[in-house]
From TrEMBL:
Belongs to the bacterial solute-binding protein 3 family. It holds the Pfam family SBP_bac_3. The keyword NADP does not apply. The lineage of its organism: Bacteria, Bacillati, Actinomycetota, Actinomycetes, Mycobacteriales. Keywords: Signal, Transport. This is ABC transporter substrate-binding protein. It comes from the Bacteria. It comes from Mycolicibacterium helvum. Residues 1-21 form the signal peptide. GO terms for biological process: amino acid transport. Residues 47-267 form the Solute-binding protein family 3/N-terminal domain. GO terms for cellular component: extracellular region; outer membrane-bounded periplasmic space.
Length: 273
């Protein structure tokens, strides 16, 4: 081996060590492909921005005092506490949840995001923190008795939601009427502007509580049984790992069970423990 060759080998070896050290340092600093992880940012700033519903009980509502409360809010607060971070809630809708993540307006969305395959192509979904299904609510005196009776009827749903997808795919003969918020759908049903409303099991539980005997739920199996996840921006595996670990620990805790009982009237399902 010539002197020049030995020198070249030494230089290449030194470069390899430098690259290895840089990669190790990058991983230790909590980066993804050289970009700081959301987890690193939150731990540094002690602040987390979470997209939640502001008018979709029991998931999330803003009270008259400007405070948020609900099933998802309990989980959002617990997540912030686990990070020792101050939480900033940002109101979202079914249609704006994913765009908020894509544009970086929120660090995570906790707003009844159903774990659909097509969603998993554009947003990172965590392990499930809840289970869901879709039900149909009608006025108490409605002649609608089955799903077949929805043909030719106006059925309310929120834009960008699972019920909106179900109406288009499974009930093409029904007249889907889409609203921006759940509260608008409920008001449309109450005022007689629509014949029925399709919503998730948890939202329907709250509707029955608030509307009493004025409404009833069709006696039929829940449509599209599904899992519900947090949503995070694609490409940040470090942050996704933390969220998954948090949910795993939270779902087996007493606070999680207390929250399930308070808002949904049941224990945490074994399926998501």
């Amino acid at each position: 081996m010539t002197r020049t060759t030995r020198l070249l080998v030494a230089v290449l070896a030194a470069l390899a060590l430098t690259v290895t050290a840089a990669c190790t340092s990058s991983n230790q600093a909590g980066t993804n492909n050289g970009q700081p992880s959301t987890l690193t940012k939150i731990l540094s700033t002690k602040k987390i921005t979470i997209g939640v519903f502001a008018d979709a009980p029991p998931y999330g509502v803003m009270t008259s005092t400007g405070q948020y409360e609900g099933f998802d809010i309990d989980r959002a607060k617990a997540l912030a506490k686990s990070l020792n971070a101050e939480v900033d809630f940002v109101g979202t809708t079914n249609a704006s949840r994913i765009p908020m993540l894509e544009t970086g307006k929120v660090d995570v969305v906790i707003a009844a995001l159903t774990n659909l395959d097509e969603r998993a192509q554009v947003v990172a979904l965590t392990r499930p923190y809840a289970t869901e299904g879709q039900l149909v609510v009608v006025p108490a005196d409605s002649p609608i008795r089955s799903y077949a009776d929805l043909a030719g009827r106006t059925v309310a749903a929120t834009r960008g939601s699972v019920p909106a997808t179900i109406l288009a795919a499974q009930f093409p003969e029904a007249k889907a009427t889409l609203f921006e918020a759940v509260a608008d759908s409920i008001q449309a049903l109450r005022s007689g502007k629509v014949d029925a409303l399709m919503e998730s099991t948890s939202v329907v539980a709250d509707i029955r509580k608030s509307q009493g005997g004025a409404v009833r739920v069709l006696d039929a199996p829940a449509l599209a049984p599904s899992l519900v996840s947090f949503g995070a921006k694609m490409g940040d595996q470090i942050w996704l790992n933390y969220l998954n670990n948090f949910i795993m620990n939270y779902n087996i805790s007493q606070p999680a069970n207390d929250s399930y009982q308070k808002w949904l009237g049941m224990d945490v399902p074994d399926l998501i423990k």
